[in-house]
Amino acid sequence: MAKLTVSDLDVRGKRVFMRVDYNVPMEEKDGQMVINDATRIKETLPTLRLLIDKGAKIILAAHLGRPKGKRESSMSLRPVAAQLSELIGRRVDFIDDCIGEKVEQAVAALESGDILLLENVRFYNEEEANDPVFAEKLAKLADIYVNDAFGAAHRAHASTEGIARAISKRGGKAAAGLLMERELKYLGEELNNPARPFVVILGGAKVSDKIKVIDTLLDKAETILIGGAMAYTFKLAQGLKVGKSLVEPDMVDVAKAALEKAKKRNVQFLIPTDNIVATPVKTDKLNKKGKPVIDLTNPRTNSDPNIPDMEEGVDIGPATAKKYAEVIKSAKTVLWNGPMGIFEDPRFSEGTITVARAVVEATQNNGAKTIIGGGDSVKALNKAKLGDKVTFMSTGGGASLEFLEGAVLPGVAALSEK
Ligand code: AMP
Question: Which of 181, 211, 228 is the C-terminal boundary of a domain?
Fold first, then answer.
């Protein structure tokens, strides 16, 4: 059943507790924490503007980093208030706690259209424990709950789940924000009933991270294209050689089962026929974890499906990229999660870029709905300056994957029905 959204609510003069995802990357500069990327703050502006126009009193709550129940000045949300104020063009007050009398007083002083940002909810262990008493203390601050933090909706925490239940229990409404609504529409409704052909592109590091998604999508898609290191575990499952590529030997049986299922269901399941390979060489340098840094030297195209013994697969090869691009360009729905290679290194980003361009072409020339399932594929598209040329890019990493697997997200389940 459809969830209530912020557009359905009458919020005039009401106290609205809005959970947002302000877990922004920060860095210390001259003794101050500075925000490196404000995308997550910008994403909340449409819901905030709507609430301001409708005359709500807005209380914002979020987590930042992993303070593990302690006050950590480097993980304070204070810098976010200043940045949000600049972006939205109005005053944003900040209070250095998220529960208690001081906070209650600040909330009581709010006028319609005011915004108050609370301190990091994870300064309390009760947040992640979804402690009901703590959730009640948060719920006490508001009449209505709005969740716009899709990226945190897979966690049943006090500010994502407990508070929604507490407010609903006393007859208040719990609704999705506009960003959350878009996530549910594109990752949910659109993919439940996709225009066909429906092509899924999956890459990234591990089969184990994505096997549940693969299994779910094998019931829905016409074609699944596999790239990234994941492809080498599938190669192992097909009895091919993978050299020194990143593989998960304990996932070979699972990969075999997926290949079997694809055959039974008549799903076209493609793995790379050629690859970019490089020779890994140990250096004297150590990484942050104290392990030797490996240089990837002598990159070249390997046209054989088998990878030579001393080489590591680092990207899909040109023939594979061409084939994948053709399939993508004829799709009517595309879902993409995970890069085709080690795209952070420009020498191994060609496969990912070719796929990104094909996804854009499908959108523009074939009228396809193209949905990017969060994480590194979003980074890759943005890096290629193609982010605004696809239908939808998810803001969730883990949350998107769990949602695509078909899991019920606690933060979504707790919202009121329409
Ligand atoms: P994921 O978070 O599972 O989507 O994985 C993304 C990561 O997978 C990126 O950091 C890529 O560098 C990495 N990756 C993709 N292809 C390969 C590969 N062939 N070998 C090693 N790592 C890879």
Answer: 181
Pick from 136, 160, 181: which residue ends a domain?
181
Q: What is the pLDDT of residues 60-114, one digit of tens each?
A: 999 999 999 999 999 999 999 999 999 999 999 999 999 999 999 999 999 999 9
Residues with CB under 6 A from ligand 1: 204-206, 209, 228-229, 246, 313-314, 338-339, 341-342, 344, 375-376
Structural domain span for residue 38: 6-181
Q: Cβ distance 41 to 149 under 8 Å? A: no
Q: pLDDT tens-digit profile of 353-387?
A: 999 999 999 999 999 999 998 788 988 998 899 98
Identify the CATH number of the domain in which residue 299 sits.
Answer: 3.40.50.1260
How many Å lie between the centroid of ligand 1 and the Cα of residue 208? Answer: 13
If asked whether residues 38 and 169 sit together in one domain, one would say yes
Q: Are residues 225 and 369 in the same domain?
A: yes
pTM, rounded to two decimals: 0.91
* Residues 118 and 71 occupy one common structural domain: yes
Query: Does residue 409 form part of some domain?
Result: no
Alpha-carbon span 406 to 403, nearest angstrom: 5
Residue 418 lies in a domain: no
Name residues whose C-beta falls within 8 Å of residue 98's C-beta, 6 or more positions apart in sequence.
61, 118, 119, 120, 121, 123, 124, 138
Q: Report d(CA 234, CA 228) in Å as an integer.
A: 11
- Ligand 1 atom closest to the CA of 227, numbered from 1: 16
Q: Are residues 204 and 117 in the same domain?
A: no
Distance between Cα 337 and ligand 1 center (Å): 11
Omega within 30 of 0 (cis) for the link into 410: no
